[in-house]
Design a protein that fits this description.
Largest sheet: 3 strands, parallel
Order of helices and strands: EHEHE
Helix content: 25-40%
Strand order of the largest sheet: 2-1-3
Distance between the termini: 30 Å
Oligomer: single chain
């Protein structure tokens, strides 16, 4: 059985142009196994839809910690968008 959504669906629009202008996208692995491998595949897929995108890679290395202030500063300084991913 299926029910109608209980809340209205809001359309999602990107705040940045991924097609017509260069953009740097950060890919942040959280340290779980396969998080880096997942982001490898995600980068390949995103590259098809955002051919001008450049990707910066980050890896916390330890899933039980938060992103360090230093790494967060790097991400903010270098990227217009970030995808955080976790493995399993």
């Amino acid at each position: 059985p299926r029910a109608s959504p209980g809340t209205p669906v809001d359309a999602y629009e990107l705040a940045i142009d991924l097609v017509d202008e260069p953009v740097t996208i950060g890919l942040l692995a959280n340290g779980f196994p396969d998080s880096v491998a997942f982001l490898d595949q995600l980068e390949k897929a995103l590259s098809v839809h955002a051919p001008l995108a450049r990707f910066e890679r980050y890896d916390k290395g330890n899933a039980s910690t938060v992103v360090s202030d230093e790494m967060l500063g790097e991400i903010v300084a270098e990227c217009r968008a970030v995808v955080a991913a976790y493995g399993h």
